[in-house]
Amino acid sequence: VQVVESGGGVVQAGGSLRLSCQVSGLRFDEYFMGWFRQAPGKEREAVASVDKSGRTRYQDFAEGRFTIAYDNLNLALSLEMNSLKPEDTATYYCAICGDDYCVSRYAADYWGLGTQVTVSS
């Protein structure tokens, strides 16, 4: 199984970025999937998750600003991030979480290598 993130970059506060995650080796839409992030010196934390039916869950800081979705056209998982803040600066990781929502890093079975998001003030 390979998990590959893309779409990170540098953006000013208030801006937007769209991350994408492509998976090979399994049918990604048959598993729970999600996005995590890790800032320097901090633990990896959940951001958003989606189940096999497309139902979503968000952490409080992501609710209303971030949108996770399956991109069926490109066979990928996306994370649309709006109204970005400097505190959103982190490496963002895509994960496959088997049979439960990605609400904890311990729920992930497979990880990508991450993509860096930097939000300048």
In words, what does this structure look like?
The protein is an all-beta fold. The protein is built from no helices and 11 strands. The protein has strands spanning 2-6, 9-12, 17-24, 33-38, 45-50, 56-58, 66-71, 76-81, 90-96, 110-111, 115-120. The strands form 2 sheets. Strands 2, 4, 5, 6, 9, 10 and 11 form a 7-stranded mixed beta sheet that branches. A 4-stranded antiparallel beta sheet has the order 1-3-8-7, with no helix packed on it. A hairpin with a 5-residue loop joins strand 5 and strand 6. The model has no long low-confidence stretch (mean pLDDT 94).
Give keywords.
121 residues, mainly beta, globular
Q: Please give the oligomerization state of what you see.
A: single chain
How would the global form be characterised? globular
Helix and strand content put the structural class at mainly beta
Topology, number of strands:
11
* Fraction of residues in H or I helices: under 10%
Measured between the Cα atoms of the first and last residue, the distance is 37 Å
Low-confidence stretches: none
For the largest beta-sheet, the strand count, sense and barrel status come to: 7 strands, mixed
